[in-house]
Amino acid sequence: MIYFDAAATTFQKPRAVKDAVRAAMDSMSSPGRGNYPAAALAAQTLFQCRMELGELFGMENPEQVVFTASATHALNIAIRSCVRPGGRVVISGYEHNAVTRTLHAIEGLTICVVNTPLFDPTAMVQGFEDLVTPDIDAVICTHVSNVFGYVLPVAEIAGICRRQRVPLILDASQSAGCISIDQRALGAAFIAMPGHKGLYGPQGTGVLLCGREGEPLLCGGTGSSSREQWMPNFLPDRMEAGTHNVPGIAGLLAGVRFVRTTGLAAIRRHGNRLKDQLLTALEGEERYQLFGSRDAALQTGVLSIIPREGDSETLCEYLSAKGIALRGGLHCAPYAHRTAGTLNTGTARFSVSAFNRPDEVDRLVEALKRYK
User: Fold this and answer.
1) How far apart are CA 184 and CA 57, in angstroms?
2) CA atoms within 13 A of residue 183's CA, in its CB half-sphere
3) Average pLDDT of each block of 10 consecutive residues along the chain (372 residues)?
4) Which pLDDT score, from 0 to 100, does residue 163 have?
5) What is the pTM of this model?
6) pLDDT attached to residue 223
7) How far is CA 89 from CA 74, 79, 110, 329, in A?
8) pLDDT tens string 263-289
9) For a surface tag, which of 60, 136, 203, 260 has the fewest beta carbons within 10 Å of its beta carbon?
């Protein structure tokens, strides 16, 4: 299978990730639940992963790195910590359902949406300038659109939040592992990310970077302050009720080391080269509408495609029969499709990882040119 669905999950993992998961299952138990070697090794592995994630994302202390089950889990914690019933939030028009469904579940909330065209960061910054005021509960913004690979002007949006003293929650689901993120420079209240996408960890892993105290989404055992009947008042324990996914976190540590060794800039350049290769090959094909920019600062290795005839999901079924995996439809992001004008059609999304090759793109182009 030729796999072009890295925006959903990176299917090809570094060998070290698989080895780390297996080794953890053979040698580690639960951290904080015993003084014996298997528990101590698990605790050491979790701490090392916090350390390396903290270094990668500009955190002051490793304790501010909280492990979650997914980016969705992390976003729920962040949003519930900042947003009150009856309050107001400002979001971009490119948010994922992990954000929008969580917001719609909060009673009486007013959601202000910055709807601006694709690849127009100036208009987006102005839109946030117009809507963000000190009475806003939070600004919630994706770093990169999961549908279009559009890189939002996060540094400028963070500056607006700092000036207005409004918490920023950043969804880094599509940027962690390919774009540099510095929590201290942004001043973000929370940054959420999955472990299984650009960080090349296993599914069932996620991370919440905490720039401020938050409210736990789950309560339960932490291995600390066990006499007390309320959650600990310190990180990361306050946010990490229950047994950790130790094999997953061990694999995530190996994935983070792969990213740091390979280099964020190199990973992003590779993705943009493959995206540009596909964009160039299809530009003369009148049968397809393409959503791409050649400005490397505005897009990652993601390209959305709409066939002029038929629909995106039928196109993806055709490609699947040829052994090529793309995702078709709305990609759990109807806000993004509504903003871009593709809500009725969806798109076929091409998204790459560090393991994709130019010859695989050539195979995709050949299949697309034969599609009828």
Assistant:
1) 9
2) 28
3) 98 98 97 90 97 97 98 98 98 98 98 98 98 98 98 98 98 98 98 98 98 92 88 92 96 98 98 98 94 97 95 96 98 98 97 98 97 87
4) 98
5) 0.97
6) 86
7) 18, 10, 6, 27
8) 999 999 999 999 999 999 999 899 999
9) 60
pLDDT of residue 225: 86
- State the Cα–Cα distance between residues 121 and 305, nearest whole angstrom: 22
CA distance 199 to 259: 7
CA–CA dist 368, 86 (Å, integer): 48
Query: What are the CA-CA distances from residue 306 to residues 8, 45, 74 (Å)?
Result: 18, 44, 32
Using an 8 Å Cβ cutoff, are 360 and 118 in contact? no
Structure token digits, residue 126: 């102005």
pLDDT at 64: 98
Assess contact for 219 and 240: CB atoms under 8 A: no
pLDDT tens digits, one per residue of 105-136: 999 999 999 999 999 999 999 999 999 999 99
Sheet with strand 347-351: strands edge to edge: 288-291, 302-307, 347-351, 327-329
How many angstroms separate the CA atoms of 150 and 274, rounded? 16
Cα distance from N-terminal residue to C-terminal residue, the chain: 22
Helix orientation angle between 154-164 and 121-131, rounded to the nearest 10 degrees: 20
Rounded (5°) CA angle 345-114-76: 85
Question: Which one-letter amino acid corresponds to residue 41?
Answer: L
Q: Is 341 left (phi over 0), alpha (psi -120 to 50) or beta?
A: left
- Residue keyed to tokens 């190199």: 266
